[in-house]
Write a structure and sequence with these properties.
heterodimer, A: alpha+beta, Rossmann fold, Elongation Factor Tu (Ef-tu), domain 3, 4 domains, eight-stranded antiparallel β-sheet, six-stranded mixed β-sheet, 23% helix, 33% strand, globular, B: alpha/beta, four-stranded antiparallel β-sheet, 8 helices
């Protein structure tokens, strides 16, 4: 009895040190994606018996599997409407863990009209599994999914060639698909691609290596997922700290709370606040547990400074020798997520990390055909359309190219009328502001108006509130 | 050598703290809904962490169905007092005074009135524009698809087919007057993560989670603990002392106990890992009707 307790304790001690891998799965309804996920969950022994019992009940009623077989897909299709339609219509998150890692799976549907969901599910993923049917190989949809994965900057791709049982586990078939796929990923500049011949339905090479593919030299899919290194994927070079919340519990403490978006910060480091460009040093890095000597992404901490600098939410702490882009005019990839097509006369809200500002789409460079990756001309975007645009913002943005820094290169656009998240963007670069059409924002020149500096804070507060309500005013002081 | 690696629990913790701070910064009048359960206890600790060394800038609200276990209420009041929380307690007193309860009206009517309606009335009364809930996506199938910032219209309804896209860690908090957002900072936590975290952080939880001899009676296959004298008289002779614990906590007539000898968190985890039932099976309300949780969520229940 006693030994058993030591066992569970050492299990928990080891479990507590596991890392987390977020992955995206993409494939069409018929590729067996839900079956693959069901098997990962099932075979990693995380399916409780009663969920299975409920499943057997459901299988009898609406299941699509043959008589007596478990339909793994039913485990995953959560919502009633979807169960009736027999398709997965939105992103669903699944959790399982092995002795080495915890996994969060974003399960997204493969239909063309649901690009939106795949983009959503993939935005936080470290790795993407793209499924293809061994009988059909790389199809248009595979290209589309791979393009989206590259757009999202997902560093690791797994190509799971499924239904190998239906092609007699043929090495030739696998190699042909693999060759074709690598050509595609080379073209897109994706470096880390690993291919697996599997049968999700029968379990080959999913959790255990299959004896039916003696020619395959790799590990099983799960072994790969457990060991693929992901620590290096984070940006640890460029310190970026978007201020999320100003903490002022008493007169002696003024801290800037936020998540380290990228990079590392140490006590004593020199920092610069944007947009004011005022500098100071890190006095302390505070957490509930006490002070830290250093913090790194994605830790949430509170930073106090040696000097009193006025900093509020939406501003950013950085290191003076490593600046992000600072500007109001950007070139960006854009994915339209709204049922309502783009209306370029609208002034959207743009939210990038903790910074929200008004924004207009000042030019459309091109749309992209997601199937062929060709550039198309376009006046506006409809749901699920992707392209490159130029955006002008009312307030200054602090950002990096998405490819270098996912945390500071991404933004969402919010429709000012419906408040829906209507588009998402991945910033490519800053554009010259010399030729920027002056938006002629109303300006309050405080010194010119003869307003004393002690009133600035109150006026800024009022202007901030107006900005929240949609009225953008520039303050000069 | 400096280490730049976070464990999965540290990463989940950071994600939750970021979410909680985002709500405090972007909403005018947020509230944290507190069920007194283990998930709530973790969420509350994460809020304390998010604003340390300051105080949490929003209140805690408990919707008291008037049928909660007595130990839950004692725990709630003690915890809130010791940790300096501003605690709001709201109930549907109209229905309570009319005698609504699970034994007389069944679980559906009871839950509709004492939980869902009480919650909606309280949210309207206080005009909260954001409400944190401790739900996790691994709990139940319809929750697996819910956003972290889950939009509710002016009738507090959730529309699973029309959810806002949610990407990276950028949350859309824009709403019109009367609309609100339910926020689930524990979305990506699993039951095991919760227990691990409670163990690591020494987070206090209601003693009902640990096994003890308790007076129980079997009702429709569920082991129900006779927590007060409102148990129907004909059932009183059937009360037996059983060594039980609870995997979830709610209204005592609707929350089945499980037979168990687990008196420590380690033993609970061990039991959980070898057990054959997932945690919500001890909840009577999930089985009211097919897809019942989804239905309740659409109507405004968490």
């Amino acid at each position: 009895m006693k030994d058993k307790h030591i066992d569970i304790k050492s299990y928990l001690d080891a479990d507590e040190r596991k890392s987390l891998l977020r992955l995206l799965t993409a494939g069409s309804v018929d590729d067996g994606k839900s079956t693959l996920i069901g098997r990962l969950l099932f075979d990693s022994k995380k399916l409780y018996e009663d969920q299975l019992q409920a499943l057997e009940r459901d299988s009898k009623r609406v299941g699509n599997a043959g008589a007596g077989e478990i339909d793994y897909a039913l485990l995953l299709d959560g919502l009633k409407a979807e169960r009736e339609e027999g398709i997965t219509i939105d992103v669903a998150y699944r959790y399982f863990s092995t002795n080495l890692r915890k996994f969060i799976i974003a399960d997204t549907p493969g239909h063309e009209q649901y690009t939106r969901n795949m983009i959503t599910g993939g935005s936080t993923a470290n790795l993407a599994i793209i499924l293809v049917d061994a009988r059909t190989g790389v199809i248009t949809q595979t290209r589309r999914h791979t393009f989206l994965v590259s757009l999202l900057g997902i560093k690791h791709i797994v190509l799971a060639v499924n239904k190998m049982d239906l092609v007699d586990f043929s090495e030739e078939v696998f190699n042909k698909i693999k060759g074709e796929y690598l050509e595609l990923t080379n073209q897109l500049g994706i470096e880390d691609v690993t291919c697996f011949p599997i049968s999700a339905k029968e379990g080959d090479n999913v959790v255990e290596k299959s004896e039916r593919t003696p020619w395959f030299e790799g590990t099983s899919l799960l072994q790969y997922l457990e060991t693929v290194p992901i620590d290096q994927d984070r940006n640890m070079q460029d310190f970026r700290f978007p201020v999320q919340y100003v903490l002022r519990p008493n007169l002696d403490f003024r801290g800037f709370s936020g998540k380290v978006a990228s990079g590392i910060i140490r006590k004593g480091d020199e920092i610069m606040a944007l947009p004011s460009r005022k500098t100071s040093r890190v006095k302390s890095i505070v957490t509930y547990e006490g002070e830290l000597d250093y913090a790194f992404c994605p830790q949430c901490v509170t930073i106090t400074l040696e000097d009193e600098i006025d900093i509020s939410r939406g501003e950013m702490l950085i290191k003076p020798d490593n600046l992000p882009f600072i500007g109001r005019h950007i070139q960006t990839k854009l994915v339209w997520m709204d049922e309502e097509p783009m209306d370029r006369s609208k002034q959207f809200f743009l939210k990038a990390n903790t910074n929200t500002t008004r924004a207009t789409i000042s030019a459309i460079d091109y749309r992209i055909d997601v199937n062929t990756m060709e550039h198309l001309e376009g006046k506006d975007f409809k749901l699920n359309e992707i392209g490159q645009v130029q955006i002008t913002t009312a307030k200054t943005l602090f950002f990096d190219a998405y490819k270098q820094n996912r945390a500071t290169g991404a933004f969402i656009l919010i429709d000012p009328i419906t408040n829906n998240t209507c588009a998402v963007g991945m910033i490519e670069k800053q554009l010259d502001e010399a030729d920027l059409l002056q938006e002629d924002l109303p300006t309050l020149d405080l010194p010119k108006l003869g307003i004393a500096p002690e009133h600035y804070e109150a006026i800024e507060k009022a202007v901030k509130e107006l900005s929240k309500q949609g009225l953008e005013i520039v303050i000069k002081k | 050598m400096e280490e730049y690696r976070l464990s999965h629990l540290q990463e989940l913790e950071a994600e939750s703290i970021h979410i909680i701070r985002e709500v405090a910064a972007e909403f005018e009048n947020p509230v944290m809904l507190y069920s007194i359960g283990k998930d709530s206890s973790v969420m509350v600790r994460l809020a304390e962490k998010a604003f340390a060394p300051g105080k949490v800038p929003f209140p805690l609200m408990h919707i008291d169905s008037k049928w909660k276990f007595r130990e839950m209420i004692e725990f709630r009041d003690r915890y809130a007092k010791e940790h300096g929380w501003n605690l709001i307690v709201e109930s549907n007193m109209e229905a309570f005074n009319a005698g609504v309860g699970p034994f007389t009206h069944g679980s559906k009517v009871h839950t509709d009135l004492m939980k869902t309606k009480a919650l909606l009335d309280a949210l309207n009364k206080w005009k909260f524009d954001a409400a944190f809930g401790g739900a996790r996506r691994d709990e139940e199938k319809s929750r697996a698809k819910e956003r972290i910032f889950s939009f509710r219209d002016q009738f507090n309804q959730w529309d699973p087919k029309n959810q806002r896209p949610e990407l990276w860690d950028i949350y859309n908090s824009r709403i019109h007057k009367g609309e609100s957002i339910r926020v689930f900072p524990l979305s990506n936590w699993t039951e095991l993560d919760i227990w691990q975290y409670i163990r690591l952080e020494n987070i206090p939880i209601v003693p009902l989670y640990f096994a003890k001899e308790r007076p129980c009676v079997e009702i429709d296959g569920n082991l129900i603990m006779a927590d007060d004298d409102r148990l129907p008289k004909e059932l009183v002779p059937k009360i037996h002392m059983r060594m039980v614990r609870f995997r979830t906590l709610g209204c005592w007539p609707l929350t089945g106990a499980v037979e168990s000898n687990a008196t420590t968190i380690e033993e609970i985890v061990e039991e959980m890992m070898t057990t054959t039932k997932s945690e919500r099976t001890t909840r009577v309300i999930d089985f009211d009707q097919e897809a019942s949780m989804e239905q309740k969520k659409r109507e405004g229940y968490f």
